[in-house]
Amino acid sequence: MTTIESLAHYRVKGLVHINSNLCNLLKLESPGKRLKIGELAKQTGVSVGTLRYYESLGLIEPSQRSESGYRYYAETAIQIIQFIKKAQTLQFSLIEIKQILTICEQGNPACLAVKSLLNEKIHQVDIQIQYLHEFKSELEQYRDRWAERSLDQPNSSKLCSLIDEVSAPLSSSDSTKTTSFPSIKHNSH
Fold first, then answer.
1. Are the C-beta atoms of 170 and 181 separated by less than 8 Å?
2. What is the phi/psi pair of residue 155, to 5°?
3. Residue 124 and residue 177: Cα distance in Å, rounded?
4. pLDDT in the model for residue 169
5. Domain boundaries along the sequence of the chain
6. Three-class secondary structure assignment of 42-97
């Protein structure tokens, strides 16, 4: 197991643990202490603005509002914020996190969804790694080809003839490609 896989396993294990506890918390309305948004921000290390944003997305909700409009959150909101932060370390989007929370709110275990999302993340990382390997190879080919090239003359009409050798990127109308690689033209200069 690579270091990255070990780290992901550790993070997922922690996420799954907090996930199972979180599903139980979401089912209960805690009669305990109520926290103002500033207190919740302080205890979770998340800004008030971020908490309001989370609320606008439906990730958290105040358990009540005072007559003057103050938001009060149940203590369970701390665990929800911790869950959000841990899920974000795995690059889960807020939309994906909302999906997980919704599954929990419906009384269902969300671990299958978490595992599925994680597998999709791993697949995306594999694609990015492949792209980066190919791109690195392409850059190395340019570097090697250009190593012995003379510099352009200062009065040349070209900004840089080296860059002129690089093929234009694919047009934005090419919807079948998710990434584009610069291609080397094999001109003899």
1. no
2. -90, 10
3. 15
4. 62
5. 3-120
6. HHHCCCHHHHHHHHHHCCCCCCEECCCCCEEEECHHHHHHHHHHHHHHCCCCHHHH
CATH number of 3-120: 1.10.1660.10
Place of tokens 């800004």: 47
pLDDT (tens digit per residue) in 141-187: 889 988 888 888 788 777 888 888 887 665 444 444 444 444 444 44
**pLDDT, tens digit (0-9, with 9 covering 90-100), for 44-72:** 999 999 999 999 999 999 988 888 888 89
- 82's CB contacts (< 8 A; 6+ apart) are 18, 44
Looking up tokens 């690579």 gives 2
Helix 94-105 × helix 48-57 angle, to 10°: 60
| Confidence at residue 76, expressed as pLDDT on a 0 to 100 scale | 92
pLDDT of residue 174: 45
CA distances from 9 to 5, 23, 33, 120 (A): 6, 21, 34, 15
Owner of token pair 């909302």: 98
